Structure formats: structure tokens, C-alpha cells
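stage 2 :: seqdesign
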């Protein structure tokens, strides 16, 4: 039976607006409701109409079918349904949501079928909608209609059967990016100050304003006065805000860090400040992040949101100026840490898409970005302690004291317990004394040095980096810095006539790097001379030589991280080796060996895994899986490989990998109520991940609102790699094993295991620990 239609008796619900069938919710559901007098008895009492005298045909013995003016016609246009929003939501959840998570997925045990009244019959005639995808789309559309205050709607069937690739791409472009948009100013503070990672028990909103921005500090003080309900605490940071002891002192009073603002008219004849919008990753990550923002910007550029992407670069310029680096994230506990550097490529890609009507303004904007990148390069990446002067390799090696406060409360319990027992204390008591410097544990200091380095690398966590990250010259970081050097040299030569003056004073790092050069206290000042392209290309050439010398392994046809303390390669096989292709620092021969000999080690049914199973090692209760190890697949690794392979002419391989990843994303979207998660198990094609923090982007009700930042971007970027034929195949959820042929480019053992476990429903039920009996 169809859900009851509770509209007034003796009227017909009409919807004459000619709205785009696949328009956004505000357009599709934004109109009002209208009624006209009903001319027939075409809707029966079971649909909300209860006439005083029942139609005579209902009393006929044979119940003959009869043509009524509002009955569904077989040759009419597209089918539309007349729906009572709240009642249908209730019925859908009651009938189909058997696990009670307010989502309709393949793991729900409902009948996966529901009758809806057709609009042309005023709800009298019904039509069955079937399957997880149509029912989950129905639930999503009803939630959106409710958002717009609609009690009854006329819903096009085409919105329930919409091509899933088109639907997901549309939702990312027109909805998800908007939902992930934040702004730090009086209007946006209440949303952005909320921090799911804050476990101090103190939830007072707090903003830290950098030294040297008095107008900004006064602006936020005014906001605090005008909005006393917020109880906003405004603090001004010292001139050196990344001093480790100072940063540790903020752990008990965490807060958001102020970002760049524009001066605008206040509408009252005066001027005020307004925050520049930016995109957050989503879920528990409700602030501006460094490398997330780069990949998010790639998706924004595909979707034509150049201004939003440009604003994120403006924030990075601001962070380098005031906080000394592009921060891991814009919270007080991140002040000592940065993340993988992508600023130059991000800025150049945006510059190439800026409006050409004001060339000089664009040029000045790029100048500020390149100047900031040069400062970051010299003061962070080729400065001690991050550089190893002996090899010239840079490392993730941030300052910091104590236990990282942004982690979950029990994250380090297994590490801290032996030390707590040693001192006869509880883990909590030991943590307090250790953080306050009362208890000294050098081995624990070293552990947290490497742990902070892992977090700075962005790959937190992985057995590749555990307990050694701060000593590693990783292939990913060397590739990124090679790209920095080439980008800066190219920008200076092509845009700035081979001469770029630097406005800020800072020390330039010695070149070429050596132990003796770094021991010498003398440093050239940045403003002493202009920068030219030749010196940056020489830096790039030198780094490429060091990459070949220390990181390339000819016998294994792969790049490896180099341990600067043990002075040998760390033979963990990481997919970040392919970042050398993205950066362009591999020779054609090295590229051919990577593609022909090593790619198959990482390629599985759902794309590229982070590392090989062999390198990860055996997993047990005492040695649990890490989220940046096998079998997990992350958007950054996919996009970097796609672009790198295309750069060297291996477009077919790039397209195959993009197809695999988008197939995995699309099947999850279709089977699990539109989910777009942070990461995947690419071997099992599952987003139901239990490693470490689990997965992000899953906790929504009725309709997905945000997706997840870089996964959204991966979908939009990935679609740009696919042919029309591939896109259609992804939309029908055609497995890569069918589209490309069995075991295409997969290691045979992996391929057999993958093909044997390609049952999505079975894997989902296994992940949920559902007893098949």
C-alpha cells in the first residue's frame, strides 16, 4: 500500500511549475503548493479521501477496471509521483531501514519495494519503485523537500533513477562544496569554532589572532561584545607563536586561528572586515588543512570555483606570514606542524584559470604566492631541523613537546602504559606529569618526535613511518620540493621577467647543502638581492641527483625513503614513489620501470593501495592495521598517480586507475545511501573501515550533506580522465574486471583473491559482523 496522502478532501494537488528535473533542491523544492477542485472520484479513501457516498463501482462484484480522467496513461510523459513528505519518510524508514541508521543501504533487510501514488491520477494509481538505489534516493529527496518546508511534493521519477555518476557529480558541485564552506568572521565563528577533536571538556569558543594585526584583534573583540551569547574569548598571539613550550601551554585552552580577511563596506557607510571563505575536509576536521586543501582545490577548479580556490591560497600566504608556515590545520595545537608542501602548484593552477580581464592584478597575486612559497622553502624545508645537511634531503621533523592533544583519548594508551606502570601511576596521571615536564623519559620523547613527524607527513599513521619518520628523507617530500623548485624557477622566468624581489626579511638557506655550510652561522638575507630562475633550476637539478643517489633502487625498480640516521634505504614499498612522476623528476627509463615493473604491486580492484601487503607485514591484535597501509586507498595517492602517468604519456594506465577508483566510489554511493567517505578498503571495495579512527563521512541521516573534501575532489578530477564510454560503464557499476578483462595489470595472487571477494553485499555484511546463519 502506498503511503497515505493527507491533502484536503475533494481537491487535486497540482504542480505546474516547469522546473529542471535534475535541478538543485532550492530550485526543485523551493516553490509553493497549489490545489484545484477535484473533478472526479479518482482518489479513494485509502489515500486520504473519504466521500460520504462511495462510488458505485466499488460495490460491483467483478470490480471492473475503468478508465478515469486522472488515471495513469500508458503513453504520457515521464512519470511523476504525488507524495506526502512526512508520512512517506515515516513509512520508508519503518519498512526499509531495518538497522535503524536513518539510511537505506544494501545491508538493510526490508522488501526494497514501495508503491507511490502517481501525480496524474491524484494518487489513486500507484507505481512500485524498487531497489536500494531508488529507495535511498527517495529518502534523500524527501529530506531535501522537508528542508525547504514542503509538506507535499510532486516528484519526478527521473530524480530517483538519475544516472548515479551524474547525481554524485552534481551533488558535489552544487551541494557538498557549499556545505563544507566555512568563514572566520562574525557570521561564521559559531560554526568554525566547534571542534570535534577538543577533548579538554572546555567548549568555550576561542580565537587566536596573530601578532601585528591590531585591526583584526579589535574586530573580533567587537564581535565578542555584540554577540555575548557566544562567550567568545579573543587572544592575541606573541610574535613567535610556534615556540614549542608556548604551543604546549595552549593545550588546555585550544582555539581556532584567525585567517585572512578582506576589508569591505559594512552597509552603513563605513568599513569592516569579512573572512575569506574556504573549504574544510568535513566530519571531525572542521578547520582549514594544508594538503587536503590542495586536492580540494583541484576539484574546485574542475567545478569552476576558482575564487574559492584562490581564497585558500590567500589563507596560506597569511599563515606563512603570521604563523611561519602553512599549518597542518588552523587550530592552536597545530602551530608547530606543517604538512606536505603543494603551494606552488596550487597557485600556478589557479593563476592559469583567473579572469584575464586584469592581468596585472593576477600577476601581483601570483607574486605574493611565490614570495610566500620561497619563504616557506627557505625557513622550513631546507632549514634545520628538517634538512639533513649531509645528504641534502629534507625530512618531516617538526618541533613540539608532549603528547599530541588532538588525538582520541585512548590513542596512545598502549604506548604510555609501560611508563605509567614504571612510575606507579595511572595513564592519566603519568600523561599529566610527562606533559608538564615533571617526569623525563627520553625514549618517549623520541617516540613523539617521530609521531609528530608522521602527522606532519599527512600519512598518520603507517608502519612505513612509525618510530622513524623524523629521520626519513621520504620520496614524497623530495618530489614535492623538486616541484617547488621547478615551479618557482618557471614562474620567475615566465611571469616575472627572470627577476623577483622579496619583500620580507628572512635567512636564505646555504646552497649546495653540506654539513660545513650549515655549521657556518652566516646567512644571506632574502632582501639583499633579487631571485632569478637559474638558481632555482640548479636547486631542482641538485635535488633530482640526490633523489637518484639516495632514493632510487635500480634492482627493485622503485623509489624508497632514505633513513638519514641509519644511512640506508627503508625498503617499505610505498605508492608515493609515483609522486616522482607527478613532479617530473623521474627519467623516462625510470618511469617505464615504475609502470611496467612496480605499478602492479599497488594496483587492486579499487585502484591503488597505499603500500604493499608484504611491506606492511602481518596484522594481529598486538599489531593492528594502520589506515595509511595496505589495503587502504586514499584520494591523494590516486590523483597524484593519474596526473603523473598522464604527464609521461601513460594515459591508458591513468584512465584504468581512475576507472577503478570511481567504480568503487560509485558502487558505495549507489549501495549505501549516497555515502562519500574519507577512504576505502580498495581490496574489498568497502568503506566500512575499522582501522584506527574508522572512517569519516559516514555519520549522516537521510541525505548526505558534505561527502568528504578530497574524496569529492577525486571524483570530479577522476571523471575528467574517463572517456564517455568509461563514464557510462561506471554509471552502470560495471566491474573493472568486466570492463578491462580479468586481472588486468594485477598481481595474480592479488587478482585471484580480489575476484573471489568481489561480492559487495557479502563484504558489507562481513564488515558489519552480521551472522549469515
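stage 2 :: out
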Amino acid at each position: 500500500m502506498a503511503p497515505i496522502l493527507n491533502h484536503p478532501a475533494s481537491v487535486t494537488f497540482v504542480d505546474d511549475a516547469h522546473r529542471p528535473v535534475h535541478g538543485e533542491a532550492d530550485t526543485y523544492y523551493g516553490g509553493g503548493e497549489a490545489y484545484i477542485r477535484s473533478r472526479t472520484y479518482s482518489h479513494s479513501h485509502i489515500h486520504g479521501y473519504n466521500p460520504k457516498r462511495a462510488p458505485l463501482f466499488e460495490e460491483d462484484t467483478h470490480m471492473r477496471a475503468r478508465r478515469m480522467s486522472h488515471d495513469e496513461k500508458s503513453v504520457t510523459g515521464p512519470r511523476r509521483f504525488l507524495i506526502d513528505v512526512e508520512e512517506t519518510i515515516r513509512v520508508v524508514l519503518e519498512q526499509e531501514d531495518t538497522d535503524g541508521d536513518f539510511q537505506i543501504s544494501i545491508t538493510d533487510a526490508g522488501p526494497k519495494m514501495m508503491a507511490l501514488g502517481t501525480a496524474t491520477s491524484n494518487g489513486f494509481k500507484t507505481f512500485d519503485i524498487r531497489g536500494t538505489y531508488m529507495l535511498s534516493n527517495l529518502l534523500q529527496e524527501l529530506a531535501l523537500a522537508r528542508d525547504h518546508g514542503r509538506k507535499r511534493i510532486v516528484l519526478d521519477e527521473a530524480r530517483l533513477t538519475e544516472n548515479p555518476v551524474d547525481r554524485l557529480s552534481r551533488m558535489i558541485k552544487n551541494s557538498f562544496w557549499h556545505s563544507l564552506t566555512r568563514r572566520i568572521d562574525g557570521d561564521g565563528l559559531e560554526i568554525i569554532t566547534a571542534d570535534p577533536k577538543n577533548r579538554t571538556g572546555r567548549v568555550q569558543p576561542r580565537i587566536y589572532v596573530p601578532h601585528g594585526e591590531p585591526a583584526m584583534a579589535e574586530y573580533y573583540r567587537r564581535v565578542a561584545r555584540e554577540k555575548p551569547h557566544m562567550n567568545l574569548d579573543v587572544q592575541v598571539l606573541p610574535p613567535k607563536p610556534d615556540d614549542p613550550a608556548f604551543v604546549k601551554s595552549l593545550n588546555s585552552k585550544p582555539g581556532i586561528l584567525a585567517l585572512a580577511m578582506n576589508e569591505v563596506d559594512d552597509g552603513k557607510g563605513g568599513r569592516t572586515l569579512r573572512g575569506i571563505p574556504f573549504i574544510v575536509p568535513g566530519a571531525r576536521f572542521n578547520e582549514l588543512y594544508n594538503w587536503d586543501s590542495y586536492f580540494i582545490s583541484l576539484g574546485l577548479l574542475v567545478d569552476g570555483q576558482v575564487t574559492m580556490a584562490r581564497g585558500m591560497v590567500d589563507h596560506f600566504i597569511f599563515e606563512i606570514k603570521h604563523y611561519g608556515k602553512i599549518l597542518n590545520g588552523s587550530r592552536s595545537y597545530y602551530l608547530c606542524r606543517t604538512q606536505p608542501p603543494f603551494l606552488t602548484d596550487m597557485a600556478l593552477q589557479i593563476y592559469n584559470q583567473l579572469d584575464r580581464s586584469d592581468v596585472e592584478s593576477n600577476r601581483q597575486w601570483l607574486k605574493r604566492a611565490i614570495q610566500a612559497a620561497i619563504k616557506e622553502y627557505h625557513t622550513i624545508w631546507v632549514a634545520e631541523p628538517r634538512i639533513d645537511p649531509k645528504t641534502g634531503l629534507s625530512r618531516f621533523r617538526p618541533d613540539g613537546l608532549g603528547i599530541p592533544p588532538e588525538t582520541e583519548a585512548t590513542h596512545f594508551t598502549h604506548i604510555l602504559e609501560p611508563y605509567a606502570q614504571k612510575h606507579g601511576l595511572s595513564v592519566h596521571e603519568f600523561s599529566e606529569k610527562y606533559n608538564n615536564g615533571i617526569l623525563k623519559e627520553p625514549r618517549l620523547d623520541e617516540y613523539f618526535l617521530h609521531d609528530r613527524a608522521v602527522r606532519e607527513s599527512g600519512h598518520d599513521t603507517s608502519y612505513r613511518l612509525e618510530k622513524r619518520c623524523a629521520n626519513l628523507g621520504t620520496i614524497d617530500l623530495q618530489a614535492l620540493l623538486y616541484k617547488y623548485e621547478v615551479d618557482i624557477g618557471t614562474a620567475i622566468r615566465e611571469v616575472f621577467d627572470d627577476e623577483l624581489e622579496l619583500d620580507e626579511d628572512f635567512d636564505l638557506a646555504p646552497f649546495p647543502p653540506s654539513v660545513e655550510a650549515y655549521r657556518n652561522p652566516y646567512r644571506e638575507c632574502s632582501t639583499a638581492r633579487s631571485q632569478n630562475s637559474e638558481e632555482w633550476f640548479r636547486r631542482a637539478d641538485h635535488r633530482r641527483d640526490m633523489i637518484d643517489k639516495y632514493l632510487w633502487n635500480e634492482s627493485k625498480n622503485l623509489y624508497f625513503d632514505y633513513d638519514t640516521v641509519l644511512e640506508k634505504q627503508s625498503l617499505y614499498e610505498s605508492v608515493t614513489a609515483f609522486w616522482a612522476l607527478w613532479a617530473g623528476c623521474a627519467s623516462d627509463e625510470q618511469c617505464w620501470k615504475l609502470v611496467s615493473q612496480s605499478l602492479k604491486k599497488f594496483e587492486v580492484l579499487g585502484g591503488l593501495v597505499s603500500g604493499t601487503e608484504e611491506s606492511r607485514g602481518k596484522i594481529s591484535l598486538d599489531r593492528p592495521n594502520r589506515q595509511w597501509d595496505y589495503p587502504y586507498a586514499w584520494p591523494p595517492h590516486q590523483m597524484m598517480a593519474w596526473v603523473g602517468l598522464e604527464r609521461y604519456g601513460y594515459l591508458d594506465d591513468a584512465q584504468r586507475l581512475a576507472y577503478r577508483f570511481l567504480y568503487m566510489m560509485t558502487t558505495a554511493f549507489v549501495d549505501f545511501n549516497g555515502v562519500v567517505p574519507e577512504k576505502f578498503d580498495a581490496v574489498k571495495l568497502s568503506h566500512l573501515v575499522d582501522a584506527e579512527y574508522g572512517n569519516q563521512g559516514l555519520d549522516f541521516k537521510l541525505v548526505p550533506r558534505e561527502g568528504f573534501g578530497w574524496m569529492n575532489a577525486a571524483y570530479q578530477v577522476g571523471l575528467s580522465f574517463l572517456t564517455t564510454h568509461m563514464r557510462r560503464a561506471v554509471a552502470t557499476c560495471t566491474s573493472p574486471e568486466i570492463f578491462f578483462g580479468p586481472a588486468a595489470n594485477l598481481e595474480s595472487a592479488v587478482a585471484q583473491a580480489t575476484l573471489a571477494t568481489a561480492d559487495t553485499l557479502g563484504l558489507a555484511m562481513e564488515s558489519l559482523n552480521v551472522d549469515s546463519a
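stage 3 :: structure notes
- The longest helix spans residues 359-381.
- The radius of gyration is 29 Å.
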